[in-house]
Design goal:
Number of helices: 13
Radius of gyration: 26 Å
Number of strands: 10
CATH class: Alpha Beta
CATH architecture: Alpha-Beta Barrel
Strand order of the largest sheet: 6-7-8-9-10
Shape: globular
Oligomer: single chain
Order of helices and strands: EEEHEHEHEHHEHHEHHEHHEHH
CATH superfamily: Metal-dependent hydrolases
Helix content: 25-40%
Strand content: 5-15%
Number of domains: 1
Length: about 375
């Protein structure tokens, strides 16, 4: 039997037409910077645009005082369109600033805005600070404050006279926690950041782009405590002050591990969580998230960490588009959609899925749980 050989150029049929190519032209990879990679999904699935929340919403997590030139009248127009009953401004300041904010928002538009005060961090190393801060909380309540907001200043930035980081469970703050409990005002507390922020900024970090663009956001190394140490210190505060109601922001500061958050909720009856700036985490684990919402439906509050007229980074305004994404996540079972408006840099390269909460749970998350804690009517 004769073995025939073929040209590497082509196989030619009886008609003389090219019927196959046996050699393959070597192809070179096209360089592409990761920042320019914007893949468009080929999926064709149902989409539901939710422009208005099904039930009235209390957004427990906004920063009206941080945004530039926020006018209450303009905000209310957006709020009415989106079915936002009340915005809670967590960073209302102290003293004269607090009174001014309460006057412009809360008193001028009753029921539409609520303002929280903040600790006087700049006085934390003064003698007698523990009693001073407790007294300031009492005065803030008289000035119209509806709660206290604790930024991650405590635990990650505030330092003592020896330049050492002050721990979240430092006893000098015990009178402040107790004062909130005695006055019946909640504490909205943020002590940590996404888990990726405590890991090396390398090829294994799922939020590499974000941290590479903002390396100062990283808490890896130096003298920063680990995420686990921060959460453990926070838990000791919750345990020591059972009569104080805490709203642990950003899904308990560990949205990547809902089992961990669930164990804390089981252990500390005075703990609640909001979902502010964590839809991107919740939505990529929809089955686990749905079980979490079902089990802790009385302890989860709606929050965005934004405002209807802009995010916490005013140079990246996107109006009120973020609310549509939150409503879609909570109300629909849509698949594989963006967790942030198009002009906002991603936190990680993934998309999310809706969890389609039933009406009973949706009402609690949208407003009932917050109304109970804040002692307001919807």
């Amino acid at each position: 039997m004769t073995r025939r050989t073929f040209s590497s150029a082509a196989l030619i049929g009886a008609t003389g037409k090219l019927i196959a190519q046996t050699s393959q032209t070597e192809k070179k990879a096209t360089p592409l910077d990761l920042t320019q990679f914007e893949p468009r999904s080929s999926l064709e699935v149902e989409e539901h645009k939710v422009e208005r929340a099904r039930y009235p919403v209390i957004d427990i997590h906004t920063h009206l005082s941080w945004a530039n030139a926020q006018k209450p009248e303009e905000l209310i127009q957006v709020m009415d369109r989106r079915n936002l009953k009340t915005l809670v401004n967590l960073t209302g300041g102290v003293g004269a600033k607090l009174r001014d904010t309460v006057g412009r928002f809360d008193k001028a538009h009753p029921g539409r805005f609520l303002t929280f005060t903040e600790p006087s961090w700049n006085r934390a190393n003064e003698p007698g600070y523990d009693k001073l801060q407790a007294d300031l909380i009492a005065q803030a309540k008289k000035d119209g404050a509806s709660g206290l907001k604790v930024l991650k200043t405590l635990g990650l930035f505030l330092r003592d006279n020896n330049k050492k980081l002050v721990k979240v469970d430092d006893p000098r703050f015990d009178p402040m926690w107790d004062a909130c409990g005695q006055l019946g005002i909640p504490v909205a507390i943020h002590v940590s950041d996404p888990a990726a922020f405590f890991k090396p900024i390398d090829r294994f970090n799922e939020r590499f782009e974000e941290l590479n663009n903002h390396p100062d956001w990283s808490f890896y190394g130096q003298d920063f405590p680990s995420n686990e140490e921060l959460l453990a210190a926070r838990d000791r505060v919750l345990a020591r002050h059972p009569k104080t109601t805490f709203i642990v922001l950003h899904v308990g500061n560990f949205a990547e591990n809902l089992a961990h958050v669930g164990r804390a909720l089981d252990k500390y009856p005075n703990m609640n969580v909001d979902i502010g700036a964590r839809v991107g985490e919740l939505g990529r684990q929809p089955r686990t998230a749905r079980k979490f919402f079902d089990k802790y439906q009385d302890r989860i509050l709606f929050g965005t960490d934004a405002t209807p007229n802009g995010f916490e980074y005013p140079q990246q305004l996107y109006g009120d588009k973020l609310y549509e994404i939150y409503f879609r996540f909570l109300e629909t079972e849509d698949e594989y959609f963006d967790y942030a408006p198009a002009n906002i840099p991603p936190q990680g390269r993934w998309r999310i899925y809706g969890i389609g909460l039933p009406d009973k749970v949706l009402k609690k998350v949208y407003h009932a749980n917050a109304a109970r804690i804040l002692k307001v009517k919807v």
